[in-house]
Specification:
This protein has 372 residues and is α/β, with parallel strands linked by helices.
Amino acid sequence: MIIGVPKEIKTLEARIALTPGGAQALIEAGHSVLVEATAGLGSGFADEDFTITGAQILDSADELWQRAELILKVKEPQPIEVARSRPGQTIFTYFHFAANQELTEGMLATGAHCFAYETLEEGRTLPLLTPMSEVAGRMAVQEGAKYLEAPQGGRGVLLSGLPGVEPAHVTILGGGVVGTNAAWMAAGLGARVAIVDVNLDRLRYLEDVMPANVTTVFSTRPNILTLLERTDLLIGAVLIPGARAPKLVSKADLVLMPKGSVVVDVAVDQGGCIETCHPTTHDNPTYVVEDVIHYCVANMPGAVPRTSTFGLTNATLPWVLKLAKLGAKDAVLGSRQMATAANTIAGQLTCEAVADAFDLPWIPAVNAVASL
């Protein structure tokens, strides 16, 4: 199969979907790899790092999209990339369709087969979402700490506090991968941390493994409102696979938070779990609502592209090899996990959560591929 790796064009996105090591593995498996010129520079890979593996460098993104049967990306296709997509082409990337109806309808109209990293399920895990969730959870704390500083407009609170001075209070909505990584980081810095979740089994687990400065709280509206009154840093980390995130904090609730406190909504790429959040970019990451600083960058791991690219390829490569070997139809029919990753097949929506978000018709992926 001909596999294309274009340069990411989302604002200040420097990750690449494949390391040179990943390219070599695909070539050794009998596939051809096309890489757009300079696509790897942001992650520290020169074009020569790919050519020595046998990959071909192309100067033209248009040519790459035209020739490739399978496109590997990091972020969702931008409008010009939607226009480059074609019927029967397979695209494997983070789509987050449930937060973007225009993208959903645009990709359906192309007739391409869209496989989403974030919905691939293995057992009860999301293995292709996990590494970037780990990065985002850890980054949420360091970004939150930065914007709590007075020169950034924050209330001038140090997460750790000092001897004789109370540490900051961090509230984390969601105890999954993002929330757990955020809690470890915040706790390690000495903050007082509360993790909020609706899953009692998860809360019991977190109670066992977290240090003493982390408290678990069952998610109810009164509990959240009580926490907001003393929250310096609020981290949104709620995930419902493939679906829009539920809104747990409203605009009216923000008045409970101290002036100059910070919100980091990692769930923003799935619509956000805080009502006032909307996607921002690395070149303009924050805005203020009700005297609360909001950091809502939708591609947070793009700020640490080298770490993120290695982490992403480590997770995706086995599934890329499977998809390249089998093709879209046989991958769906032969792998339950790949079937969960299929969000659109030949112009048909195959993800129930996305269909529910926009009240669109859908059919199971195994039914959709029957006509291929």
